[in-house]
Amino acid sequence: MRILVTGATGNVGRLVVDELLAAGASEVRALTTDPVRAALPPEVEVVEGYLGRVETLPRAFEGVDRMYLARLTRTVREVTELAREAGVTRIVDLAGTAGSWWYDVEKAVEHSGIPWTHLEAGEFMTNTTIWADQIRSRGEVREAYPRAANAPIALEDIAAVAAKALLEDGHEGAAYGLTGPEMLTRAELVAQIGKALGREIPLVEVSHADALADLTETMGADAAAWYLDGCAEMAEHPQPVSPTVSRVLGRPGMRFAEWAVAHASLFR
Ligand SMILES: NC(=O)c1ccc[n+]([C@@H]2O[C@H](COP(=O)([O-])OP(=O)(O)OC[C@H]3O[C@@H](n4cnc5c(N)ncnc54)[C@H](OP(=O)(O)O)[C@@H]3O)[C@@H](O)[C@H]2O)c1
């Protein structure tokens, strides 16, 4: 059974490759624009291409049974049609529900008629790296919504669920809402990063406008506005934990405290 991982050097796709290999998958193919730079493990078959350049896909899809589909809305209709023509029999996509930026991925996958599993991941733990510059330069975090709460997820867990859905039966037709194992406020996330670094990181509450100005420097204006609007919403309506990761993996998802220790170098 040949499995194609698209976006194979991306933050999620690269981990999906590792999870598939660890689970013993023997025919893993990876799609990348630059096979040399990608430096994928030697047991992976590397194919040059990109979801955004659909002319590269017929060759990449040849002989593929199952596919991890990275998020790219612009070409997803053509991508899924080409996958159907090539005989792909299962798609596991990183998508999003109606109203999200990535809903077009789910719509196109379902429209193709190929059996699917949607992974609807909530906020990634890696998003907390937006504070890394402030922690390094000022030793503090300026936040507008310290009580905003949700259950961020580790990329490692998204990839592990993706690999299960690619390799095991019984996940077809499921739209998995994926979160981490505990609901935490922004203030608790900052405190956990401080613990991982071995020092207290003061959280300074600032206005929405001041936080926007700070974050625009690191994220750009659109992403900063999107992030802060999301925090304002979470302050009013905290996002609860979904049990799906532990149900699918048979173990709890990674806790933020563990993640912060494992990735402390991102904040140093
Ligand atoms: N929910 C959240 O909190 C959250 C947080 C951060 C990100 N996200 C989203 O989660 C998704 C997963 O992220 P990901 O890092 O795994 O990325 P991805 O979009 O799944 O894949 C990125 C890969 O696509 C390939 N690529 C080729 N040409 C590209 C181009 N012109 N532009 C961009 N990528 C190109 C690159 O690999 P090659 O160069 O090897 O081809 C790159 O490594 C993204 O859609 C991201 O926006 C969500």
From TrEMBL:
Pfam families: NAD_binding_10
Domain NAD(P)-binding as annotated: residue spans: 7-168
Protein's name according to its UniProt entry: Uncharacterized protein YbjT (DUF2867 family)
Source organism: Amycolatopsis thermoflava
